[in-house]
Queue: 2 jobs
Job 1
Amino acid sequence: MTAAARGGAAPALSIILPVHNDGAYLAEVVRSYQSVLDRLGRSYELVLVSNGCTDDSVEVCAGLQAQSSNVVHIDLPVGGWGRAVRAGIAAARGEIICYTNLARTSAPILSLLLSYNTAYPDIVVKASRKVRDSWVRRLGSLIYNLECRALFDLAVWDINGTPKVFPRSFSSLLELTRDDDLIDAEFVMRCRQQDYPVVDVPILSTIRHGGKSTTGYRSAIRMYRGAYALSRAEPGT
């Protein structure tokens, strides 16, 4: 369902949730998000973007949309984190836009980041995860973040940390181009180029609702190389 096809007043918040083989826990997570969002007192929509799913995620998303007027479902036949985020941003109608990894984001963390936005609506708010599953992942993340900080002259840590929350008025963030995991590096790079203020919120939780991380040695190397290529391709870096 596209933004043009949906009627009614635009919500205050658009929460974009890329979905990839999350069917086993998707409904429970969405309902936990709805519970905390209802308490925040702002109108919202949850934009579920299934992408390249091979389990029952598409059917679960469709069912959640049928049950709740504040759930929107978009299905993409091809997978990709960046592709799903971009599709969600294109469909979002809220003045405040947020995207997050639903497999790793608890309802209290989502509520915390959105509460920061309530207090400071004209900045970018993003999570900065302080604990990783293993020393190997910690080391890999450190190398990647040091690379991105050097290449893009960044002051933030945890480039890939979500939730990321930003106002629609930050128009450059509505025009992201990456279809892969490097969309998060592009996001923070654009914040730096446009002088959008960014606040890192430390997150200590290591909760994972289900599934396994897709980050391995090969994907890590692709990201290291991709960040360098992105820095060479973009003006002003």
Job 2
Amino acid sequence: MKLTKRQESILIGSVLGDTFLQKTGSRNARIRFEHGERQKDYLIWKGKQFPRLFQGKPSYLQRIHPITKKLYSYWRWQSNTSPDIGKWRKIFYPESKKKIPDNIADLLTEPISLAVWYMDDGYFYPRDKSSYIYLGRVLEDEAKLLQDGLIRNFGLKAKVYDKKKKGFALFFGVNETKTLQKVIKPFIISSMQYKLLENHTSLTP
């Protein structure tokens, strides 16, 4: 099964965020979506973007958080296996470990990719009217590749911040947040609208 351009764009944004591509053979892989209990609608929306890959229903799971030791409830939905997903796994997991590819600027070109990435790992701070996209455990050089891609493709001048225990993040000041949200707004689903500036009416001009 060949992914459409839109599906590829959604997949790129997802893999930059919380999605895992699981190897299932020498050529094949599957998509694994996992989101917290409150983000079930978002997980279902993601799966429905790949109707030939995602069948059945997501599973409700619980586990103990390894650091906080608190019980964590979440939803998981795994796709069927596909060689096309296997191709994308080789791009983002070249040695079985997630890596931001050197050509990410050539991949992260569509607004919907940026929107999905933001819905996964983006945070809006109403007090400061600023935003972050948290990158997790990537190298600083990888963070800068993403920074360069945003400048080249969207004119977004994010700053790379070292959040220590949280890893690196991309920071968007007030003006950059407005630009970012203008780009991604058409693709933000209803259950994730709380991440948009305009929904904090007491702070808008």
